[in-house]
Amino acid sequence: MKKIIITGGAGFIGSHVVRRFVNQYPEYQILNLDSLSYAGNLENLKDIEDCQNYSFVKADITDEQQISKIFSEFQPDGIIHLAAESHVDRSITSPLEFVKTNIIGTVNLLHAAKECWKNSFEGKRFHHISTDEVFGALGNEGFFTEETKYDPHSPYSASKASSDHFVRAYSDTYGLPIVITNCSNNYGPNHFPEKLIPLMIHNIINKKPLPVYGDGNYTRDWLYVIDHAIAIDLVFHQGKNQENYNVGGFNEWKNIDLVYLLCNLMDEKLGRKNGESAELITFVKDRPGHDLRYAIDATKINKELGWKPSVTFEEGLDKTVEWYLANKDWLENVTSGAYQKYYQQQYH
Ligand code: NAD
Ligand code: TYD
Question: What domains does the chain contain, in order, with CATH numbers?
Answer without folding.
Answer: 3-191+222-251+293-312 (3.40.50.720)
